């Protein structure tokens, strides 16, 4: 009846339980209160000149077609250069038209994957801590997220913690795979830990995927940001994995231009054909000029591959210095850092600061979340609570770490250091 229809909620079932987004909340807090923002993950330094110049040329050059629609599944120069690059990285022949698709950032690539592969009743394994949108996107597609945690093993006496101390328990991981498992989401280098998965860990995941016929959605947006000579290993290059893996990347992270929102998927046509279906029925097409400029950026990088002038060599070198600087600063302030092997994030332990932040007994909100809010309001320093990267049931298990982004100008990191050292002095005086 009309009565029954009118008493139904106006929103579709897809929106049930996915209405909260921590970024909306913490970005607003940072905008309102922060003087130093080490919260959301974006550089406050400019992208490289060659990239900016490529965009200027795309916009003001002779080729006015760069202001118009281009190919729906990716501007031809961009998919061609991406195919060339990934052929080299994977040792796998690629067809730019069927093995690569351009998206509006890695975010849309993720959304397309879940829409393309996940049905009601399907389970998707997510390794905790995880980039928060995976959970909501799986739920929106009708699937069931299944969580498996990386567990922190205490480091040897006196040693600083490292993101490598966070480990998968192989038996626990294996126990999550069953006949309902459709996919696993892998994010290496991992946001928020900065963990770079080792070959052994990737082989463990790969073997389980092959054994249980499971897809791997491999979010590799931080692929170029690895430190201390560590190697980023692509799971798609392991035996049996190419045919079941979708690699996801982002020009935002690769070229320090997160606002451009250019991303991509790379994988076998048997998977990408369905990603194309989602794309053509939703976004259809990504901004042409930005794709053109990113294509130019990759052409330069392919030419300079492995050479000292390459941005892919220089950026991690610069970021490693910034990482070390923030590690020192946090350590001196008594906020014990976990040294990341990759990404532009690091976690710091806030246990020593418990006396400063008023405890709210029986609060539903994890301690780190209240701490991060208190810190931005009272100290002007913005960071993101680790609990934001856990599912609802596990949020209180790891609630004494906050995540800092160190992809920042020296002046920003210095200003953060000033806040931290002054705070420490107030505590001890
Ligand atoms: N995956 C991870 C792990 C990320 O950290 C981010 C950005 N924070 C994204 C995907 C989204 O990337 P993009 O900005 O290209 O959409």
Explain the overall architecture.
α6 (133-140) links the parallel β3 and β4 (144-149). The protein is an alpha/beta fold and 429 residues long. The protein has a 7-stranded mixed beta sheet with strand order 2-11-10-9-8-3-4, sandwiched between helices. It has a 5-stranded mixed beta sheet with strand order 6-12-13-16-15, with helices on one face. The termini are far apart. Helices cover 40% and strands 15% of the residues. The site of 4'-deoxy-4'-aminopyridoxal-5'-phosphate has 14 residues, from α5.
Chain-wise SSE layout:
Layout: H1 2-7, H2 22-33, E1 36-37, H3 49-60, H4 76-90, E2 100-104, H5 105-117, E3 123-128, H6 133-140, E4 144-149, E5 151-152, E6 161-162, E7 166-167, H7 170-175, E8 181-187, H8 199-211, E9 215-219, E10 245-250, H9 251-254, E11 262-266, H10 269-280, H11 288-303, H12 311-333, E12 336-339, E13 345-349, H13 367-379, E14 381-382, E15 384-385, E16 401-405, H14 410-428
Helix pairs in contact: 2-13, 3-11, 4-11, 5-6, 5-10, 12-14
This protein binds 4'-deoxy-4'-aminopyridoxal-5'-phosphate (PMP).
The site of 4'-deoxy-4'-aminopyridoxal-5'-phosphate has 14 residues, from helix 5.
Keywords: Aminotransferase, Cytoplasm, Lyase, Pyridoxal phosphate, Transferase
Pfam family, one: Aminotran_1_2
InterPro entries: Aminotransferase_I/II_large (IPR004839), Kynurenine-oxoglutarate_AT (IPR051326), PyrdxlP-dep_Trfase (IPR015424), PyrdxlP-dep_Trfase_major (IPR015421), PyrdxlP-dep_Trfase_small (IPR015422)
């Amino acid at each position: 009846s009309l009565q029954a229809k009118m008493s139904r909620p106006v929103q579709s079932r897809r929106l049930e339980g996915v209405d909260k987004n921590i970024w909306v909340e913490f970005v607003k807090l940072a905008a309102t209160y922060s003087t130093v923002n080490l919260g959301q993950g974006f550089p406050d330094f400019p992208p490289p000149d060659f990239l900016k110049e490529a965009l200027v040329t795309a916009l003001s050059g002779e080729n006015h077609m760069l202001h118009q629609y281009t190919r729906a599944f990716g501007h031809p120069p961009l998919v061609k250069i991406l195919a060339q690059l990934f052929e080299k990285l994977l040792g796998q022949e690629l067809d730019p038209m069927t093995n690569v698709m351009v998206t509006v950032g890695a975010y849309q690539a993720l959304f397309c994957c879940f829409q393309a592969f996940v049905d009601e009743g399907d389970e998707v394994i997510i390794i905790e801590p995880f980039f928060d949108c995976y959970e909501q996107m799986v739920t929106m597609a009708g699937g069931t997220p299944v969580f498996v945690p990386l567990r922190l093993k205490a480091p040897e006496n006196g040693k600083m913690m490292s993101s490598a101390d966070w480990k998968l328990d192989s038996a626990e991981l294996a126990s999550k795979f069953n006949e309902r498992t459709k996919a696993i989401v892998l994010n290496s280098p991992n946001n928020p830990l900065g963990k770079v998965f080792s070959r052994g860990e990737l082989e463990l995941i790969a073997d389980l995927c092959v054994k249980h016929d499971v897809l791997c959605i491999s979010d590799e947006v931080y692929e170029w940001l690895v430190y201390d000579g560590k190697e980023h290993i692509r799971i798609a290059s392991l035996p049996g994995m190419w045919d079941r893996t979708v690699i996801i990347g982002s020009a935002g992270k690769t070229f320090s231009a997160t606002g451009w929102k250019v991303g991509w998927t790379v994988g076998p046509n048997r998977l990408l054909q369905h990603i194309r279906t989602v794309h053509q029925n939703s976004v259809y097409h990504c901004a042409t000029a930005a794709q053109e400029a990113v294509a130019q950026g990759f052409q330069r990088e392919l030419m300079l591959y492995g050479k000292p002038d390459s941005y892919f060599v220089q950026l991690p070198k610069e970021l490693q210095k910034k990482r070390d600087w923030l590690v020192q600063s946090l350590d001196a302030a008594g906020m014990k850092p976990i040294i990341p092997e990759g990404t532009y994030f690091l976690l710091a332990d806030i246990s020593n600061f418990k006396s400063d932040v008023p405890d709210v007994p029986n609060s539903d909100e994890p301690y780190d979340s209240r701490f991060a809010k208190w810190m931005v309001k009272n100290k002007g320093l913005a960071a993101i609570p680790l609990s934001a990267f856990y599912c609802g049931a596990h949020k209180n298990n790891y609630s004494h770490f906050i995540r800092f982004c160190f992809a920042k100008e020296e002046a920003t990191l210095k200003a953060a250091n000033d806040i931290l050292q002054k705070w420490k002095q107030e505590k001890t005086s």
